[in-house]
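Below is how a single chain appears once it has passed through the pipeline. First comes the sequence as given, then the structure the pipeline wrote out for it. We keep one example in the README because the format questions we get most often are answered faster by looking than by reading.
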Amino acid sequence: MNIKLPEPIENYLRSSETGDLEKAAAAFAPDATVFDEGEDTNVVGREAIHRWMTEYTSKYKTTLEVTDMVEEDGEVILTTLVSGNFQGSPAEFRYRFALRDGLIDRLVVEFVGFK
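Resulting structure:
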């Protein structure tokens, strides 16, 4: 499926995929927030988001495929198939993005189910 993603989301995903996590973090606003359903707290700020990405990638060694995109209530919502080094892989996740000034302002990662 060929989906045209908004530029900051495309930059984040492409940079994450190639392992350039500094560039991936640069797609976020300096005060952006990430809420990963698997974590206990929000990740706030570009530096903390970079650390979150580094830990997540080294631990799970994931790949992500976007299977659908909708825009709803000011958010860009991606349905994704994530494969990696975790029990039950692959799994479906929903990534909910809010954008501001050409950057990602908020990302919420929600587990949908195992495939």
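The mean pLDDT is 94.

See the next section for the split statistics.
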